[in-house]
Amino acid sequence: MSHWTPELLSPAGSLEKLKVAVLYGADAVYLGGQKFGLRQASDNFTYEELAEGVEFAHSRGVLVYVVLNSFLHDKDLLELPEFLTLLVDLKIDAVIVSDLGVIETVLSLTDLVVHLSTQASCLNIESAKLWQQMGVKRIVLGREVTIQEARKIKEATRLEIEMFVHGSMCMSFSGNCVISNYTQGRDSNRGGCAHSCRFEYSLDFKNEDSMENKKAYFMSSKDLEGIRLLPEFIEAGIDSLKVEGRNKSHHYAGTISKVYSEALGHYKKHGHFLSDDMLNWESELRKVSHRDYTTGSLDVYAGVDSIYNQRVDEDNEYVVSGIVLEACVGKHLLVDVKSAFMPGDILEVMPFKTPIENLSVTFLESLSGVSLPKSKPGSVVKIPYILGAEKFNIIRKKA
Ligand code: SF4
Question: Which secondary-structure segment (H or E) carries 155?
Fold first, then answer.
């Protein structure tokens, strides 16, 4: 008997990361085009990349959502219809929108499915009903909502409900923040957030006798990790679990998709989770770059425990050594090198469906077969073949 599980929605910051997320088990991916999304820094998709990405995902049964969640001025809205026509032609599965003007434009000009972005900060049933009347099919709830509150919104509206399950968090009301605008001249609500909340700030107390002036990262949030709450998400009937991180690495896109997909697949088959499996999945989630983890507001409203005030850098247990471009069975792997490694190193290969395997670099060669003392990022090299390795597998190394 198969048990119901939510959709796993992974970030696709580039065409290559889309392929990685799809192959490592995402049920759906979300991405941004060249305009109208809130991530200027990620490698937003060109039309050609979008077409290739949609074809790649759809041919594997994976859905594609396009992010249109900037708040637009009238002059920006004028450019929107042309972009919408492209999305309709590509048969994308939904657009993720927050601006009322954008929703109105999408619904009046197209039959595209509209998902309300978390930027719209929908936190309650009445708000959800209003968005529903407007024609929104799915609501990505504000991160301030608990799973139990989300369950009530779902029950009252029967709308599709999406919640964040993993990734970095914003300490403001889901992006409704202008710290970055004021301190860096970069507009958070038009894709330019400089993550000013991650900076170190000085506290300058008026009464210098009562408290020492000190520096702190008092606005930086820990990262969200909801894997232990999967039973609650499932029980509440949450339709889609979203992973944050379009600007993050291939390692992140692959690992988070693999771990959550394995966990949901396990539940689908067995109808429960085992604590040993949960420990293994948590251990894998600690191998990607992250800050300390928190469950944010998923079970109780986030408070001081969710502040990451110790340091600004993310922990980095592993680095990506490369991505497999071709597996020549029994001979070698062709690897697109992302960071340097050398003969004698022990690497780890992450297969799509099976456990991680160690790979000893007993030889390292250029494409023409010349032995190399060290791999160079950006180059393509040959290393030993390992059984089960496939194109797009991630190869990593302990930092
Ligand atoms: S600066 Fe921080 S709090 Fe403000 S929008 Fe960016 S991530 Fe959110």
Answer: helix 147-157
What's the confidence (pLDDT) of residue 373? 97
pLDDT of residue 71: 86
Q: How far is CA 363 from CA 85, 304, 382, 383, in A?
A: 51, 50, 8, 6
Q: Quote the number of domains for the chain.
A: 2
At 24, list the tokens. Answer: 């490592």
User: Is the CB of 197 inside a 6 Å radius of any atom of ligand 1?
Assistant: yes
- Kindly report which listed range (184-188, 200-204, 207-211) carries the lowest average pLDDT score: 207-211
Go through 249-274 and write b for each residue having 16 or more CB atoms within 10 A of its CB, e for each that does not. Answer: bbbbbbbbbbbbbbbbebbeeeeebe
> What digits encode the pLDDT tens for the residues 344-390?
999 999 999 999 999 999 999 999 999 999 999 999 999 999 999 99
User: What pLDDT score was predicted for residue 33?
Assistant: 86
258, 237: one domain: yes
Beta carbons of 320 and 339 less than 8 angstroms apart: yes
Q: Which atom of ligand 1 is nearest to the CA of 195?
A: 1
Distance 172 CA to ligand 1 centre (A): 6
Distance 394 CA to ligand 1 centre (A): 30
According to DSSP, the residues that pair with 241 across neighbouring strands are: 8, 163
Structure tokens at 354: 């099976």
Looking at the structure, tell me whether residues 287 and 322 fall in a common domain: no
393 burial type by CB count under 10 A (0-12 exposed, 13-18 middle, 19+ buried): buried
Is the shortest distance between the CB of 193 and ligand 1 below 6 Å? yes
Which of 255, 284, 306 delimits the end of a domain? 306
Kindly report the CATH number assigned to the domain that includes residue 114: 3.20.20.70
Angle between helices 15-23 and 47-58 (to 10 degrees): 10
Phi, psi (deg, nearest 5) at residue 49: -65, -40
Give burial (CB, 10 Å; 0-12/13-18/19+) of 132. Answer: middle
Range of the domain at 245: 7-175+220-306
In angstroms, what is the span from residue 183 Cα to ligand 1's centroid?
Answer: 12
Binding site membership of 191 for ligand 1 (Cβ less than 6 Å)? no
Q: How does 168-177 read in b/e, with b if 16+ C-beta sit within 10 Å?
A: bbbbbebbeb
Residue 139 has pLDDT above 90, yes or no: yes
